[in-house]
Amino acid sequence: MKVVTGPEMRELEKKSFSRLGLSPLLVMENAGSRIVETLKAEYGCLSRRRVHILVGTGNNGGDGLVVARQLMTLGARVKIYLVGQEQRRSKENRTNLEILRRLKADFASVDISHGGKLKFSLGMADLILDAILGTGFAGSLDADTEALVQAVNEVERPVVAIDCPTGVNSAGGEVKTTAIKADLTINLGLLKAGCVLYPGASFAGRNVVVDLGLPLMEQQITRFLLDADAMGWLPVREACSHKGTFGHALVVAGSLAYAGAASLSAQAVVRSGGGCVTLAVPEAIYDRFPPDELIVVPVASSAQGTFGRISLDKLETLTSGKDVLAIGPGLTHLTEVLQVVQELLGRWEGPCVIDADALRALTPEFLHQIPEAKRSRWIVTPHPGEMARLVASEPGAVNANRLDVAETWAKEWNLVVVLKGAPTIVASKEATYINSTGNPGMATAGSGDVLTGVIAGFLSQGLTPLQAGALGVYVHGKAGDLAGLKGQRGLKAGDLLLSIQEVLS
Question: Where are the domains positioned within the chain?
Answer without folding.
Answer: 3-219, 244-504
